[in-house]
Amino acid sequence: MSSTLPPVVRRQTIADALHRTALRLPNKTAIVCGETAWSYADFDALVSRLAAGLAHLGVAEGDKVAVLARNSHGFAALRFALARRGAVLVPINFMLKADEVAYILRHAGARTLATDSGLTALAREAAALDTVVERFIWLPSEDPTEPDPAMHRFDHLAASPDPMPEVDLGSFDLAQIVYTSGTESTPKGAMLTHDAVLWQYVSCVINAEIAEVDRALHALPLYHCAQLDVFFGPAIYIGSSNVITSRPVPENLLALIEKHRITSFFAPPTVWIALLRSPLFDAEKLKSLVKGYYGASIMPVEVLKELAARLPGVRLWNLYGQTEIAPLATMLGPQDQLRKPGSCGKAVLNVETRVVNDAMDDVVVGEVGEIVHRSPHLMLGYFNDPERTAASFEGGWFHSGDLALIDDEGYITVVDRKKDMIKTGGENVASREVEEMIYRLGGVSEVAVIGLPDAKWVEAVTAVIVVKAGQQLTEAEVIAHCNQHMASFKAPKRVVFTDSLPKNPSGKLLKRELRLRYAG
Predict the structure, then answer these.
(1) In terms of Cα–Cα distance, which of 440, 433, 459 is closest to 179?
(2) Whose CA is closest to 90, among 172, 151, 175?
(3) Domain annotation covers residue 158
(4) How far apart are alpha carbons 457 and 493 in whole angstroms?
(5) Is 74 helix (H, G, I), strand (E, B) or coil?
């Protein structure tokens, strides 16, 4: 049966979600960042003016707009203004080097780049490296900073007198391209539609119990899909109050939790550990906190026990997923933290997850298989990369690349990574990318990069190197070389020299054996 209804009547986009919250809760505090505070009505109206300003600037529907910026109210507003304009958000990790940023700008075809005062130099350097960037937008920061006079100012764009133009935008249109590293040396751009992100919001609200009464602290980078789309987006969707900061260090986080009586907070295990070890930690001042979330890596069992003892009023969730699924896939809830330590739980509301062998049959209890998903959260594919898209969806399921066990209750535990991804301090590092950088050193015969358990980073990037006969190489030289050419979080924290690397009869490198050998 065909319908003559105009598409806008049934439309639900990321920007529509904000507008509907503003209609329900106009006077409620939506955003607090430094000295800036906006109600939902203020936030929604500003987003519309900013979207009109973007249109006047020349940003068209479907244009890719890159954002290289730290957390701020400006970042938050631009995220929703791009959605309202019908443009495509391309968030970029601000810890990358200029040539790494330039690759993303070139691949995405971004003609507009938004940045803040602290990252202006990096933005200009990257944009000059054979990209199509033709305009810059200056975003305000958490602390007052001077705008770059050569950039289009956020506050000027947000003061646009122009009416918001009508856009031919639907729920299935592209909302964002989020770049993720895999085993390949070049990042892949996961294309996520408005409906994929919104279905994921629903799963977050239900399974992670994100609620209107929450006062949430958003401290981990908004360029990362976990903070942006598992926590900030769903909180706006449901109507929480949100405190944004760019400084995820204990002295700042503890002060903000106390000052704003924060009830909900997400961080990777490394940040939770830093809070517990801080001399400023005072459980009495953190009594408002009732929901704690972690992800990106496994929380050590001893730390779980310590959190339970020192913050008994905090319920914990472990959230697992990947960029390609927007990103939440499975969840381990509060009741299972100590009953199923190390597990990533079960699939969330709008996800179907299996653990399968190479024949796509479900594995039996105790057998290692690959995690695969079906879900409306999933990406359309990788931008301009049909081959890697086809490989990721082989057999009609999305292949996560993570190897796991499933127990007799259906709980999943990740045991290894098919894609050799290292998760260090909450950041993803592709081992092959680091290996290729180390191979640029003339004295390297062979190298394997692995993640090893670490008290601070949870996983420390570790290079195991065989030096060429007659050559010499030091740990300091390897680390300095990587730091010069890569983001610092990708550079090895440790370097081990050995006579040979373990391989199977077919010559395949046995990284699991290396992890076992050097774990101590």
Answers:
(1) 433
(2) 175
(3) yes
(4) 10
(5) helix
Residue 513 and residue 183: Cα distance in Å, rounded?
19
257 falls within a domain: no
The answer to whether the beta carbons of residues 413 and 344 sit under 8 Å apart is: yes
Which residues 6+ apart lie within 8 Å of 87 measured at CB?
54, 59, 60, 61, 62, 63, 64, 65
d(CA 136, CA 54): 11
| Structure token digits, residue 190 | 């996961």
Strand, helix or coil at 172? coil
- With beta carbons less than 8 A apart as the criterion, state whether 125 and 89 touch: no
Instruction: Return the pLDDT at 185.
Output: 56
- Using H for helix, E for strand and C for coil, what is the string for 413-466? EEEEECCCEEEECCEEEEHHHHHHHHCCCCCEEEEEEEEEEECCCEEEEEEEEE
Which strands make up the sheet holding 36-39, listed edge to edge?
A: 36-39, 29-33, 241-244, 215-218, 264-266, 291-295, 315-321, 328-332, 346-347
Give the model confidence (pLDDT) of 210-236 as tens digits.
999 999 999 999 999 999 999 999 999
Share of the chain residues as helix, strand and coil, in percent rounded to the nearest 5: 35, 25, 40
Q: Is residue 487 part of a domain?
A: yes
The count of domains in the chain is 2
Peptide bond into 327 cis (omega under 30): yes
- Does the residue 33 lie in any domain? no
* Domain-ending residue, one of 125, 144, 169: 169
Neighbour tally for 27: CB within 10 Å: 10
Phi/psi-derived region of residue 124, left when phi > 0, alpha when psi is between -120 and 50, beta in every other case: alpha
pTM of the model as a whole: 0.87
Burial 435-455 (b: 16+ CB within 10 A, else e): bebbeebeebebbbbbbbebe
Q: Which of 140, 169, 198 is at the close of a domain?
A: 169
Weakest-pLDDT range from 122-131, 430-439, 452-461: 430-439
Closest CA to 289 of 263, 254, 321: 263
Name residue 233's amino acid: G
How far apart, in whole angstroms, are the C-alpha atoms of residue 1 and residue 399?
35
Give the residue-averaged pLDDT of 400-415.
93
Q: Could you list the residue range(s) of the whole structural domain that residue 121 is in? A: 46-169
Q: What is the pLDDT of residues 365-407, one digit of tens each?
A: 989 899 999 999 999 999 999 999 999 999 999 999 998 999 9
Return the CATH number at 125: 3.40.50.980
Q: What is the 3-state secondary structure (H, E, C) of 265-293?
A: EECCHHHHHHHHHCCCCCHHHHCCCCEEE
Q: What is the CATH number for 455?
A: 3.30.300.30
Say which residue the tokens 């810890």 belong to: 95
